[in-house]
Amino acid sequence: MKHRAKGAALSCLLLLLLAIALAQSRGWLTLHRDSLCVTEGAIEKTPTDRLSVNVPKMRAYVTDWTAQSAEVRFTYLGGTPRESALGSGTIRRQFGLKLRAQDPCNLVYAMWRIDPESKLVVSVKRNPNAHSSRDCGNRGYKNIKPRRASAVPRLQPAQSHTLRAEMKQDELRVFVDNHAVWEGSVGADAASLEGPVGIRSDNARLDFEIMAREYEGNHPRSVKTCKAGAGDSD
Known about the structure:
- The protein is mainly beta.
- It has a single domain (28-214), classed as Exo-inulinase, domain 1 (Jelly Rolls).
- It is 14% helix and 45% strand.
- The chain has 3 helices and 16 strands.
- The N and C termini lie far apart (68 Å).
């Protein structure tokens, strides 16, 4: 009887673990080119049906409303032949994910800086009274100090990795290759922003695919209107 009870308990545990694994894997959407609104630069399709960036500046957001969880599976191809400086005059090679991108002046960034430094930086750009790049420029950025963090790999051309960001209320977790590299709170003010997820790059060439978790429930606006030319300021 004891062996039978232990066997039943083990079976129940295995079923529970399987259910958890299925729940975690369920609900991810692979986003295609027509689900992205490119507000600056260009995103192209590759012959293998992935996406690519080959321009100094790229800004895009997802037009489908999703949860605040996004993942990029990418191959880093090096720097762009021509480089563009940020609004501050700094030349930086980086790319990352946008969360709660209400507009170009109010959003959350999880950026993988590649050069001249290698690190993961989370920033909130907040300008409550500005809603276009013309209004806010590169003002309103605040880098957020993590509660826990670890180093990211130094990227070399032809390397492939995964970058994922998941935000619930004010809590943000960022993962590289399924290992947490940044955990902390971005603050209640940033958590109150309402907007889609997206992607950004500066002076980096990438082949990638982007995914996002399905929105829980029904969003009153299932699709966000694409406003080309409304790219983020640096």
